[in-house]
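FW: tagging you since you asked about this chain on Friday. Here's the raw sequence from the shared folder, copied in full. Didn't touch anything.
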Amino acid sequence: MNLKLSFHPEFCQDTLCHSDTARRCGLDNHCPPELLGNLSRLSALLGEIQQSLNIRSGALKINSGFRAEALNAHVGGVPNSQHCLGLAADVVCPEFGPPCDLAMAIAQLPCEFDQLILEFGKWVHVSIAPLDQTPRRECLSIFSKDEGYLEGIVKR
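HL: got it, structure written out here
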């Protein structure tokens, strides 16, 4: 089966796989072909968020998109991270406002995200569901590993 992949121009495969940490540490962070469909769908979601929130071109920044297993382990990601499947990106948009404001705005959109997590008050994790699953539209916040995940987008 040939899957036609399409990427939003601003959230292309290179952007979603870029990692300064991987480059600095000599780690390969290329997305394997079998996960490119996930990355394409993630790209579309990010484009939808940008357009729906009227965020200007180039203002929504990807801190972390796809992570190969070695990079994920290096940065302390959880072993079952959606990043390793090309399903998640961590984003910020200083022009829009603090990460909490961005997360609250995304939570109000009708887009089909799987998880939306305000992480440590510093960035927003947004993910899509695997093709065989219904998006959960789960909203969480985490401020410390000791406290763990809190339900909803919590402003502190």
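FW: The first helix runs from residue 13 to 17.
HL: agreed, and The two ends are 48 Å apart (CA to CA).
FW: great, closing this out.
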